[in-house]
């Protein structure tokens, strides 16, 4: 195991915010949190395809996971995805319970 970083989730946060979520959404949230390095909130790049691969689910299930997390106010869209012939850029996310978060609007 090359990365020994851990994710700290307080009991109160788990009980109030995560416990009501579907199991898929909890797993998706944890995978998104793994990408946070302490400084990169608003710059967490994660696509539906990547999440689907991480969880062994379909892209539509991954989209539903992101939708559930957005609806519950756990994440926001920092910058929408952009696709054209030359490049594909995944959506940038903000995780709302992290200390260095910036104020963003929910674009979803």
Any low-confidence stretches, pLDDT <50, length ≥5?
101-105
Major beta sheet, strand line-up: 1-5-2
- Calculate the terminal CA-CA distance, rounded to whole Å: 36 Å
Global shape: globular
Overview of the molecule:
Strand 3 and strand 4 (88-89) form a beta hairpin. Helix 2 crosses helix 4 (59-71) and helix 3 (48-55) crosses helix 4. The protein has a domain at 21-95: Winged helix-like DNA-binding domain superfamily/Winged helix DNA-binding domain (Arc Repressor Mutant, subunit A). Helices cover 38% and strands 14% of the residues. The strands form 2 sheets. A 3-stranded antiparallel beta sheet has the order 1-5-2, covered by helices on one side. It has helices spanning 11-18, 23-34, 48-55, 59-71, and strands spanning 44-45, 75-79, 82-83, 88-89, 92-95. The chain has 108 residues and is α+β, with helices and mostly antiparallel strands. The protein is globular. The longest helix has 13 residues, at 59-71.
What are the SSEs and their pairings?
Layout: H1 11-18, H2 23-34, E1 44-45, H3 48-55, H4 59-71, E2 75-79, E3 82-83, E4 88-89, E5 92-95
Antiparallel strand pairs: 1-5, 2-5, 3-4
Helix pairs in contact: 2-4, 3-4
Summarize the structure.
By secondary structure, the protein is α+β, with helices and mostly antiparallel strands. 38% of the residues lie in helices and 14% in strands.
């Amino acid at each position: 195991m090359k990365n020994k970083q851990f994710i700290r989730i307080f009991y109160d946060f788990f009980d109030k915010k995560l416990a009501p979520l579907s199991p898929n959404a909890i797993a998706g949230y944890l995978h998104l949190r793994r990408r946070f390095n302490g400084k990169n909130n608003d710059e967490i790049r994660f696509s539906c395809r990547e999440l689907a691969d991480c969880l062994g689910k379909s892209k539509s299930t991954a989209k539903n996971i992101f939708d559930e997390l957005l609806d519950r106010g756990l994440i926001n869209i920092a910058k929408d995805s952009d696709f054209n012939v030359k490049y594909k850029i995944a959506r940038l996310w903000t995780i709302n319970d992290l200390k260095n978060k910036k104020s963003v609007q929910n674009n979803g």
